[in-house]
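User: Okay, second chain of the day. Same drill as before: sequence in, structure tokens out.
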Amino acid sequence: MTTADRVIRRGVDEPALAALAAMLAPLVRDGGVILLSGELGAGKTTFARALLGAFGVRQRVKSPTYSLIESYSLGDLAVHHLDLYRIADAGELEWLGLADLVAEPHLMLVEWPERAGAALPAADLVIALVHAGAARDVEFAATSPQGQRWLNALASVSANGSAS
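Assistant: Same drill. Structure tokens below.
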């Protein structure tokens, strides 16, 4: 098995991005924190929707741009999808009740995490999406031991040909 603190995929189109999310879904089923970074239109919400779809969420997965947070119950796991694009100051996050969100088993997906300052719980995995012509480059970076386990498993799954 390969151990790396980063996995990079170049020239990823939308179907391949959905496939990456589907490969990651069973690995993160026990919860944690995933930060999604990238410019407008880079695919952050697309990735989150594909991940939730891979979890079996059948309801419409709305972008939380205006509501700031959308939550989904997956048995014992609560998935919280946050979009902090409209946050001007990290102090605004206090009214979201982040402490309550992380009191239960959870998976937190956070778009625009840089707007939160230190208000977010520590990340396990950072997924950076960068425009690359009609596609995008995707970099997965582990930021905790749990994130490292996810990344190693993702690299192993990818190496075995499940997706590229």
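The chain has a mean pLDDT of 85.

User: Thanks, on to the next one.
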